[in-house]
Hints:
single chain, alpha/beta, eight-stranded mixed sheet, 10 helices, 17 strands
Amino acid sequence: MTCEYFGTCASCTLYDKTYDEQLNYKIKREKNRFSNFTNLxxxxxKSSEKNFRNRAEFRIWWEKDEENGKDKLFFAMNDxxxxxxxxxxxxxxxxDISNLMPKILKELESSMILSFRLFAIEFLNSSxxxxxxxxxxxxxxxxxxxxxxxxxxxxxxxxxIGRSRKQKIVLSSDFINETLxxxxxxxxxxxxxxxxxxPNTAVNIKMIEWVLQNSSKQDADLCELYxxxxxxxxxxxxxxxxxLATEISKTSIKSAxxxxxxxxxxxxxxxxxxxxxxxxxxxxxxxxxxxxNIDLKSYNFSTIFMDPPRSGLxxxxxxxxxxxxxxxxxxxxPETLHRDLEALTKTHEIVKFALFxxxxxxxxxxxxxxxxxxx
Length: 375
């Protein structure tokens, strides 16, 4: 991939390497990092080289056009000196987002009501071309703005949300519809604005498939922590009798419940609870009212699945994981995964390890580790 902003835009930091060169650089770095735990060959999940992001956010920059005296809008990113960099395009966003960017900017620029004090634009796009755009302002959004945006939704065939301080205005819908074909089976999801979604859809599908292909069907139950909107939970439910999944975010739990309905899945219980509180409930340290209708003792857990934030696991969660026969750990931060494996490999051995290149052209890479209890 080539991009006219390589070297000036701060987003893509590995711009001086071809895709294969940067991927090999990250593979070598992570193999060295985890060499004290495993000498297994890593499974490598590659990204597309361009147009791979289905979620993106851009600042909006205003400048006076000296020729006609009118204000002109630009998309903007930070440059390598943390100053504003005006851009006309972005090579890593999906084709749908890329095609929409100049069209929506032209429409916004033509109306002072739509453009005045516009601060940023967020795009959320599905592989089925459903598009949700969030316009973020530093002003109160009035009825005149709403009427204009309704027309803009129809003209561009998109969904729009307006946000300002203490305001969220949903014109038609606050989510997009997504269908992921995973191991030749379609799974349906609704992705909410402001909720967590994986930004690289193609790599996300391969991540889920990697987990499924390394998880045998079991006459037992699954415990999942940090389940989000059910991205892994729903496909994994096909491998287990029952699933008990926890998540602290209200938005994510709402999405997870809706996604279960979309896929007619009935063997998952979702709990809005932090991982630390769940451990206390499971160990009967404390009773929680939100668990009053859930019989924890009825579960026959064989596997724990964890996809924590960048901070990784806390002490209580690491100790809980040691009690399971199988551990599936998806990590967005190799540093904290390495720290957690220091504890987990005292009771378990790594049987599979993968790298998922969600964020091509950056230093970032995600990891997957599957561990089995040492006999």
